[in-house]
Design brief:
With about 250 residues, the chain is mostly helical. The protein has 10 helices and 3 strands. It has 3 domains: about 70 residues, no CATH class; about 60 residues; about 80 residues, GroEL.
């Protein structure tokens, strides 16, 4: 029971005491062991009254076009207006943030959902699953200076990070910039150590030349859907080109 109450509070930000009281009421109805009869009775005597007195007035204010009546489920499928979405976000954040940051984060969440055109229930479920990522503190940056910026969400860390590097452009690649000694499925026959070292130098030179071309064309960010060779990362750091690798191919769509 305690674990379920904690999960409820984690999902809604509040309501742990209410959960315990409602569960106690259900168990008191089922003293004779007939839970099948106790649940409908509990719904009729307690839940319907609670919805009528506590939920319906707030639902009417959050959904001006509808309400908590027969068409409530259909109304939830419609796109929410910005004001209605903020009215939902602020109570949700009440149990997670202080009064100073709650309104600002609600405004940012509203702006994000409206910009993405995702003012539906999946967007609200995303808030519960990704709350730590949505509210990440940054040292030296006050909450009031936060803003929603257009961009692409990269679910990988930098393999090479060079702030203020080569240029403002980014390029997408689908292969390693350092060529392999042999093609996939083929064998490489090395007759001497000297030739092997020479082949490795040619591969490294090709990687360095590729990174230099990127830098000369103003590319400061290399986005790769494959893992780049360590020599590519080395030359990228050397020439001020940031690298993010192992990205999903859905980024290309």
């Amino acid at each position: 029971m305690a674990a379920r109450a904690c999960r409820l509070q984690g999902a809604t930000g509040d309501g742990a005491k209410t959960f315990v009281l409602l569960l106690a009421a259900v168990l008191s109805e089922a003293r004779d062991g007939s839970l099948r009869r106790a649940l409908p009775a509990f719904e009729r005597r307690v839940l319907r009254r609670a919805v009528a007195r506590g939920v319906r007035p707030r639902a009417l204010s959050a959904f001006p076009a509808g309400g908590a009546g027969a068409g409530a489920e259909a109304e939830l499928e419609l796109e929410l207006g910005g004001a209605a979405l903020q009215a939902l976000l602020e109570p949700y954040l009440r149990g997670r943030l202080g009064p100073g940051g709650r309104r600002r984060v609600a405004l940012l969440g509203r702006e994000l959902c409206v910009r993405c055109g995702a003012c539906r229930r999946p967007a609200l479920r995303l808030l519960g699953r990704r709350f730590p990522q949505l509210h990440a503190a940054a040292a030296g940056l006050p909450l009031g200076r936060s803003a929603v910026l257009p961009g692409v969400l990269l679910r990988r860390d930098f393999a090479a990070y060079c702030p203020g590097g080569a240029g403002p452009l980014a390029v997408l690649v689908a292969r390693c910039l350092r060529p392999a000694l042999a093609a996939p499925g083929a064998e490489c026959e090395v007759r001497s150590e000297r030739r092997h070292r020479a082949a490795l130098r040619r591969c490294a030179g090709t990687a360095e030349a590729a990174v230099e071309r990127l830098r000369s064309r103003g590319v400061g960010l290399l986005l790769s859907c494959v893992k780049q060779h360590e020599e590519v990362i080395y030359y990228a750091k050397l020439h001020g080109v940031s690298v993010v690798e192992c990205l999903s191919r859905r980024l290309w769509r």
